[in-house]
Automatic annotation (TrEMBL):
InterPro entries tied to this protein: Sec12-like, WD40/YVTN_repeat-like_dom_sf, WD40_repeat_dom_sf, WD40_rpt
Membrane topology field: Single-pass membrane protein
Chief location bin: endoplasmic reticulum
Keyword Transmembrane helix: yes
Organism name: Cymbomonas tetramitiformis
The keyword Membrane belongs to this UniProt entry's keyword annotation: yes
One of the protein's GO biological processes: protein transport
Name recorded for this polypeptide: Prolactin regulatory element-binding protein
Transmembrane residue ranges: 338-356
Gene3D superfamilies in UniProt: YVTN repeat-like/Quinoprotein amine dehydrogenase
Gene Ontology MF terms: guanyl-nucleotide exchange factor activity
């Protein structure tokens, strides 16, 4: 499990790993311009892009990619750009959403028919794609900046997290798409729904906590989230990455990882089998989602807080971007088959324990 650190040559704001490579968004040399670049991290160098395009976007904050479209959230709104994975090219601007203010969270649905945006003002918007028809609009979804947003696998639920204190406002919400059986928040003229579950979070579980959520990943029916707790006496922050069932009433779930610092990034692999998280000290952890068995735990992978974290489509490589430098750290993960011996040992132990208890009876 080796690690290498490379520099792209200019400040990288965010990146997204795709089948064709890693799409990087960086601030440009000229005012109100940014750069989208495609690099083959697994076979080549980060600083040697195979696709490169300048876009008229100021200060990109987040990007997401679905098939042939790159969405770029920025301080002004969101723009959409064509992406040819086969030819490794990024073309000019195709669509734009302006006048939305600073957008801090962005996600395509897995089906690609929707795109969700979360703002610094706590405003949640969901659009159909590619029409960009607004059908979900919740101005007061959160009272603080929305820091992360994601869809579940079948695109029927959206989870948003913000920096609201868990003891006051939950800081996390699960929203139901297309389901009129939930509490209605918005109905568009077309009859589409974006609704918030009633009693999504068990508030009693958070009444004595002084903390906030950061980072979220969604599989079919399970959420993986980072919770940062601030000690009232020392002011120091410790964090848990937890696994919770996404039912109508959610309380504490299973602990996945623990940090002695703030969780600042979290991601789930495309196949939903691995969850990776990172801290404000540059520490990184990767675990299996189902068994919660650890795969990797490494300290000081990057210098300072991790701004962005990504797993390759085959989940054999991890890329981390530091908030304090231009460097990107590339970490190799064990192949899926490499964990087979350990799993086999657990199975053998379980069988032996069963036989032992049977004989004792």
């Amino acid at each position: 499990m080796g690690k290498s650190t490379q520099s792209f040559g200019c400040p990288v704001s965010h990146f997204k790993w795709t089948e064709a490579g890693v799409v990087l968004a960086s601030t440009g040399d000229s005012p109100n311009t940014s750069t989208l670049a495609l690099t083959n991290v697994e076979k080549g160098s980060i600083c040697d892009p195979v696709g490169f395009h300048e876009i008229p976007v100021d200060k990109p904050t987040k990007i997401d990619v679905h098939r042939n479209t790159i969405a770029v959230a920025s301080s002004e709104g969101c723009s959409f750009h064509e992406f040819d994975a086969k030819d490794k090219t990024i073309s000019s601007l195709t669509k734009t959403l302006k006048g939305l203010g600073n957008q801090t969270a962005l996600a395509f649905s897995r089906c690609g028919a929707m795109v969700a945006l979360g703002g610094a003002d706590g405003h949640l918007r969901v659009y159909t794609y590619p029409e960009l028809t607004l059908f979900g609009d919740v101005p007061a979804a959160h009272s603080e900046t929305i820091t992360d947003i994601c869809f579940n696998v079948d695109s029927t639920r959206i989870c948003t997290v913000s920096k609201e204190r868990a003891s006051e406002e939950s800081g996390a919400a699960v929203w139901s798409v297309w389901d009129p059986s939930c509490v209605q928040y918005k109905t568009s003229p077309g009859g589409l729904y974006l609704e918030k579950w009633s009693n999504v979070w068990d508030r009693s579980a958070f009444k004595d906590l002084n903390g906030y959520w950061s980072g979220v990943g969604y599989t079919v029916d399970v959420l993986y989230m980072g919770f940062n707790q601030v000690c009232p006496k020392t002011g120091q922050t410790s964090a848990l990455v937890i696994q919770v069932e996404a039912g109508p009433l959610i309380g504490w779930g299973k602990r996945v990882d623990y940090y002695d610092a703030e969780v600042v990034a979290l991601t789930v692999s495309e196949d939903g089998l691995r969850v990776a998280s990172a801290s404000s000290k540059g520490d990184i952890s990767v675990s299996f989602t189902r068994s919660l068995l650890p795969i990797l735990s490494q300290k000081n992978v990057v210098k300072g807080p991790v701004r962005c974290l990504g797993l390759s489509p085959c989940a054999t490589m991890l890329l981390a971007k530091s908030a304090d430098s231009d460097g990107l750290a590339k970490v190799s993960l064990p192949e899926k088959g490499a964990t087979f011996p350990f799993t086999l040992v657990l199975v053998v132990i379980a069988i032996l324990m069963y036989l032992y208890t049977t004989v004792m009876k």
